[in-house]
């Protein structure tokens, strides 16, 4: 159940579940969250009548979103609206100054970071760090913007002497996954968690006995359900910026934290390898 007094978790959890609701369920949620007069005493019957569904349907949807019931959902929304979190994000408009644009873009990213930190499963984080530290082979899968995150992480790992293969071609993903085994780890990056090429590679990696870590924006996505461990970002949608821009920042921070945790597990070796890789490129810097 959601800790309803933490407004960062409230907005994040609702958004993470929305793509996996039925069209009717999503419409009911939009109707409820769109009510400007919603308060701590708004009756269930009034909400269900406005949404054109039964009381039982509203309760069912509230529970599907992770709340104990309608009252819990209602109270959480009231708390959410009483804070600055709900109003942090706003769309870019033609009249915005450069200062407005900077503020809105930065606030969107800061909100994604705050909310992601509030929902991040620390136990899952530790398990992921342990797996990556002890893996014989590390495969990173992603396409488009997700592939760029994978490359960034692989670069960091290489600096401390941990090699990772980054695959962004569907055939190469499957070929690489087919060669993994029980001592190996595949990290699958997909914002939506529904990218078929990434899911297919992750599934094959699991069939070969490898452990799979998912980096995604949705905890109930097909990729999350397939993975041994899912580490989720959360980002508010925007017609112009989309979710991906803010989620990319959050996912990079998740993996930065993973990198530090992995390095910490053998700090002496990590520092020695970091010195070696730093010295190797020192001659490429202009004096």
Describe it.
There is one protein chain. By secondary structure, this protein is of the alpha/beta class. It has helices at 7-17, 23-33, 44-51, 55-64, 70-81, 98-119, 122-134, 145-159, 170-178, 196-207, 222-226, 244-264, 267-281, and strands spanning 138-141, 165-167, 185-189, 211-216, 229-232. Helix 8 (145-159) links the parallel strand 1 and strand 2. It is globular. The mean pLDDT is 88.
Task: Provide key terms for this protein.
Arc Repressor Mutant, subunit A; Rossmann fold; transcription regulation; DNA-binding; globular; SIS_dom; alpha/beta; single chain; DNA binding; 287 residues; MurR/RpiR family transcriptional regulator
**CATH fold type of the largest domain:** Rossmann fold
Helix run count: 13
CATH superfamily of the largest domain: Glucose-6-phosphate isomerase like protein, domain 1
The major sheet is characterized as:
5 strands, parallel
Q: Share of helix among residues?
A: 55-70%
Structural class: alpha/beta
Strand tally, please? 5
Distance between the termini: 57 Å
CATH architecture of the largest domain: 3-Layer(aba) Sandwich
Strand order of the largest sheet: 2-1-3-4-5
Question: Any idea what the shape is?
Answer: globular
Beta-strand percent range: 5-15%
Radius of gyration from the CA trace? 21 Å
Which stretches of 5+ consecutive residues score pLDDT under 50? none
CATH class division of the largest domain:
Alpha Beta
